Amino acid sequence: MDKNHLFFKPTPLYKEYMILDTLQKTPDITQRELSHILNVAVSMINKYLESYEVKGYIKKEYKSSKTILYHITPEGIERKKLLNIRYLKASQIIYNQANVEVTSFLNQLVNNGYKDVLLYGSGDVAEIILNTLKLDLSINIKVLGIIDDNKDRQGSKLLEVPIIDISQIVNYPNDGIIVATYTHHKVISQNLIKQGFDKNKIINFFN
Fold first, then answer.
1. Which fold has domain 113-204?
2. CATH topology assigned to domain 8-85
3. What tens-digit pLDDT sequence spans the chain (207 residues)?
């Protein structure tokens, strides 16, 4: 599709909130683990942490040459509260704008002849797509299933739609697969192609 769907991409302030919140809950987390959570390079995490230390949001405690504890300070806790309030205020606006984008996206699919589809990814984007379809019955698209690589989610349901393993695609004849996740969406598309799925039937929500 043509749109970049910027409303779903994590902002610097949201990343800051996520880091501070994670450090408060898990002081002994590693920079590499943080990089996986936020899907950014370890070098960027290091820069973020250095910045937060200078601003007085965190303090480092070196337990050994390889183990660092990150303690969030009272200033850091207040900063996290402020970020959380700003995030909550913006969330409803962003959600409404996201619904407009999703509706436009789905209507484009209808115009291109798609009817029965699978989603790849059972996160926020998938949930908004399903809710949009549930509320707007004029959009003639049916989601047959949701592919997710997380084995803990496979076998469960999201809004009554089954969450499946990628190997189960053959059990769900479809017109296309919507890659409904920002994280690793390019890698997911490439993996689908490698597994023999028609690249013309892969629909990326994010470009």
1. Rossmann fold (3.40.50)
2. Arc Repressor Mutant, subunit A (1.10.10)
3. 434 444 455 678 889 999 999 999 999 999 999 999 888 899 999 999 999 999 999 999 999 888 899 999 999 999 999 998 887 877 777 778 878 889 999 999 999 999 999 999 999 889 999 999 999 999 999 999 999 999 999 999 999 999 999 999 999 999 999 999 887 888 899 989 988 899 999 999 987
Whole-structure pTM over 0.90, yes or no?
Answer: no
96: CB partners within 8 A, 6+ apart: none
The residue count of the chain comes to: 207
Measured from the Cβ of residue 188, the count of other Cβ atoms closer than 10 Å reads: 21
Q: In the numeric block, which tokens belong to residue 204?
A: 């990326």
Contact 202, 189 (CB under 8 A): yes
Domains of the chain, residue spans: 8-85, 113-204
**What HEC string does 32-67 produce?**
HHHHHHHCCCHHHHHHHHHHHHHCCCEEEEECCCCC
Rounded to a whole number, what is the distance in angstroms from the first to the last CA of the chain?
7
- Please give the structure tokens belonging to residue 169: 């695609």
Largest CA distance in the chain: 61
